[in-house]
Amino acid sequence: MALSYGKSLMQPIRLSRGLTQKQLSDRILEKTGLKISVSMISLCETNVRHMSALQLRAVAIALKTTEKKLYEWKK
């Protein structure tokens, strides 16, 4: 079996922090200097696209979590 992403958990984590996608995008820029658009966040939350390692780290920093917790990683 090939290694792959599981379901994105970014949306429930973001919502538990009381953030909109726009607020998350702004927080990522503020905390890391990396620009991730609202549309990219939306695509990633719905598993249409996946983030690069750098983007994943930036989201984790902005949401005060770990990269591992952003996805249900398949075993």
Describe this structure in words.
This protein has one domain: Orthogonal Bundle (434 Repressor (Amino-terminal Domain)), CATH 1.10.260. The protein is globular. With 75 residues, it is mainly alpha-helical. This is HTH cro/C1-type domain-containing protein.
Low-confidence stretches at least 5 residues in length (pLDDT < 50)? none
Taken in chain order, the helices and strands follow as HHHH
Distance between the amino and carboxyl termini? 9 Å
Q: In what range is the share of β-strand residues?
A: under 5%
Q: What is the CATH C level class, in words?
A: Mainly Alpha
Q: CATH superfamily, please? A: lambda repressor-like DNA-binding domains
> Based on DSSP secondary structure assignment, what is the total number of beta strands?
0
Count of separate DSSP helical elements: 4
CATH topology: 434 Repressor (Amino-terminal Domain)
The quaternary state of the protein chains shown equals single chain
Could you say which structural class the secondary elements and strand pairing correspond to?
mainly alpha
Shape: globular
Total tally of structural domains: 1
Question: Main attributes?
Answer:
mainly alpha, globular, 75 residues, single chain, 4 helices, 434 Repressor (Amino-terminal Domain)
